[in-house]
Model the fold of this input.
Amino acid sequence: MKTWATVLAVIAAGALGCGLRPAAAQTKASAKSFDIIDWNGGKFLYGVDYYPEHWPESRWEQDAAMMQAAGINFVRLAEFAWVKMEPAEGQFDFAWLDRALKVLNAHGIKAVLGTPTASPPAWLYAKYPDIAAMDENGVRYRFGSRRNYCLHNPNFIAATQRIVTAMAMHYRNHPGVIGWQIDNELGDPICYDPNCRAAFQRWCRSKFKTLDGLNKAWGTIFWGHTYTSWSEIPLPWNTLFHAHNPSLALDHRRFHSESTRDYLKLQADLLRKLTPGKAITHNDMGLYDNYPMFGEDYSNSLGVGLAHDLMRGSKGNQNFMVMEQEGGLPGWNTFWGRQAAPGLFRTWAYQGVAHGADGICYFRWRTSRYGMEQYWQGILDQDSYPNARYQVVSQTGKELAQLADLLKGSKVVSPVALLVSPDSRWAFHIQPLVKDFDYNRQLGLYYAGFRRAGVSVDVVFPESDFSSYKILVAPSLFVTDQKLVGKLTDFVKNGGTLILTYRSGVKDEHNVVTNQTLPGPLAELAGIEIHDFDPHTNQQQEVAGPDGVGRPARVWFDILTPTTAMPVLSYSKGYYAGKAAMSANRFGQGRVYYVGTELTAEACLEGAKREARGLGIPLGPELPQGVEYAARVKDGKRILFLLNYTEKPQSVILGEAWRNALTGEPEPAEVNIPAFDVKVLVNP
Ligand code: GAL
Done:
């Protein structure tokens, strides 16, 4: 499982205080007034991840000069350099880092220092072998990779406090250090050792207070798994048939998430206390550190857009920074990603900006000669030749410097929100639905529908305030609680449009199936009852509306019985042909749609357009495939971004007259965007 849900829960729980902003500005009120662009003297933060410890010192000066020439104004340093800074227990050496900073600072380049806890030194494992995480079979991972630690190990916590304190004390007054990145891509692994088990038992005790309460909430009467002492509670580890009580498993996910949050908070509290005035951030994993050509099929730029919006959402819709933006071909020891045309390294940077990034940091400055990431290209290759990527990064640096004043204070404003439920996502991971089901794809489908229609989308979480949105999409809202149902009800009563999809309202907050008629606590709101469903096995299903046109449907088929709702689409095949597949219900001042199956991307686009139009939400222009349209808003005026991810020139017809923000020239009504290029436009 990817870790973003863990880290989102961490961020949502407020441990970090919303990413990159000064430690002194950690309250909600002051956060509003903080602008990332103000943080480095009004500059757009443009950086690279740099590892001076991998290269001879004689190379540093030339590196800094090349960075400066490319418009780089900050570097991230030291996040894996624990052993260089603490070569033996309690003995510190920052002289090398001081020298590197001096060289960089002399070229106008500031630093974000990484606390190095993702990569503990070999001597620490040798002295305290139990700091390594234990897998679910009871075997500790060996030294050799990274992120191998137990969050509940007292020796590891002490070592963390020691290195973070030493760094903080050494750099607290350093003018060339503007802030901190805590650890690196927090989240994994889950450790199953006795310390973690004891901590989980304490966590359960503090949550449920009585064993009776826990036994009832988890339904431990099933298979007679009732606990008679807190010390009997296991972790969801290596059981026969991998069978775990889903309620225990969900609470264990929450426990791991909170443990990660507490570890982050431990470091954040130390840094805030010891280095007031310096900012604190983290680089989240998967949907944040931005590697479009790695792993999943991100040829669809919308996946990357969603990742950016998710991160903006985790900060309560404030602007953010991308701490790792793909700077070259991704590849690890055993595999390669796909190479990108050089122009894309610029287009992706602008894509981040279009979605609210006020800082971009490329991973990494130069490809490593050593270790697991010899195949993972930086901007430069090992020979430091100023290649095409370097030229593109340099061009981008100059442009973003030019755009800093325009971008400052602008943000993404969205009429539509996508509700992401970490609990539902975990619950689907614990008990996968059908083979074809993918919670992320459900999110992506509705997100893409609105975004392709030219409508901005914010990502919200169950704790967020929904009141400013016209439309809230909550795909497969599997796990709910009374509070969330109450918030959704108020949203609709007050005029909001809520879109629910299949398998919503099935589980309570303990991951126990409701005994109400489905969709359980959402049935009244949706105005339907579900008395039968058909998990997709091998039949081809179709749904049709009043126009009689069949549209493909897949994955899952909830068979709806409208009570107060009207049917919108009906199934065309099988024993439930003619029964409702999608419904619309008026409720209070608003409306609730329930989509009982997975529709195609085209159907989602069609639906998004119709709904937005109906609510008076302006649509964007018609877009060719592979072109993205996005906007930031400042003083009521839009800054438009047209991004072409294809290898062909494309054109987009805009209704109004726009001016090119970089050249100052007026753009024709039909804007031409060269291959892999971008247009940033403002009203004349
Ligand atoms: C990131 C990680 C970096 C580097 C990069 C490329 O996930 O934070 O340290 O490993 O991937 O592999």
Notes: The pocket of beta-D-galactopyranose is lined by residues 184-185, 283, 289, 324, 363, 373, 376 (CB under 6 Å). Residues 22-120+151-185+258-407 form a domain with the TIM Barrel fold (CATH 3.20.20.80). Confidence is low (pLDDT under 50) at residues 1-33.
